[in-house]
Amino acid sequence: MNNQTYWDKRYSQGRLWGDNPCPSAVRSFPHFTRLGVKNVLVPGCGYGRNAVYFALQGFDVTAFDLSNVSILHAKALAAEQSVDVPFFQGDLFDIDFLRGKKFDAVYLSYVIHLFLKDQRESLLKRMTEWLKDNGILTFSCISTSDPHNYGFGLEVEPNTFVKHESKPLHFFTGDELKKLLEPDYRILEQKIHTQTENDPSGESEELQLWFVAAEKCTK
Ligand SMILES: C[S@@+](CC[C@H](N)C(=O)[O-])C[C@H]1O[C@@H](n2cnc3c(N)ncnc32)[C@H](O)[C@@H]1O
Fold first, then answer.
1. I need a labelling partner for 123 at 20 to 30 A (CA). Which of 59, 169, 178, 213 fits?
2. Which residue, by CA, sits nearest to atom 4 of ligand 1?
């Protein structure tokens, strides 16, 4: 099953984790206001819970996801909340998508750990290209300190495990995040936080996630 089919199938169950924004979106807000952010790009936006939150706070938001089904849910959520967000179907790895566009902020929730090392690096490069100089990148990702999820399945790369559906999950250490960001960014905040996700089957999962806010340095 390809990646798009996988996510379309998952989102056919609806707005999987509820409509509230992630803690990392709420944590991003004071950074955005302090730095005078006006527009925000939300790649891998899913069904728009965070993009809609940012629009409700008054930011000019652009958002996209690989899954057509999630984009339909996102448009419905924005309509329910009476906000105007352009939601697009698009692939993070399609280098022509949003080529030449620049944003004050890029927010990536719970996406970068879904890929192997080479793809994570090219994903970060794309985020950097989409940011204006001195723009801010905020994101969340899973951490090696997550006792309920780290270490399960087959380790295919260091700290990267495949548990089900052939999907890798990479668990980040703090030092690794610092090294990854070092060449292009100044880290403003890097902290572990807990995110509780409730899924449609009624199950709830406690995740230990990194929240990172980093400013793109002018070269
Ligand atoms: C765990 S979900 C997180 C969704 C959303 N960021 C949130 O926090 O609600 C990962 C998302 O990444 C999207 N995704 C995966 N690969 C992608 C790609 N190559 N391009 C764009 N989106 C992608 C999936 O469709 C899915 O919506």
1. 59
2. 46
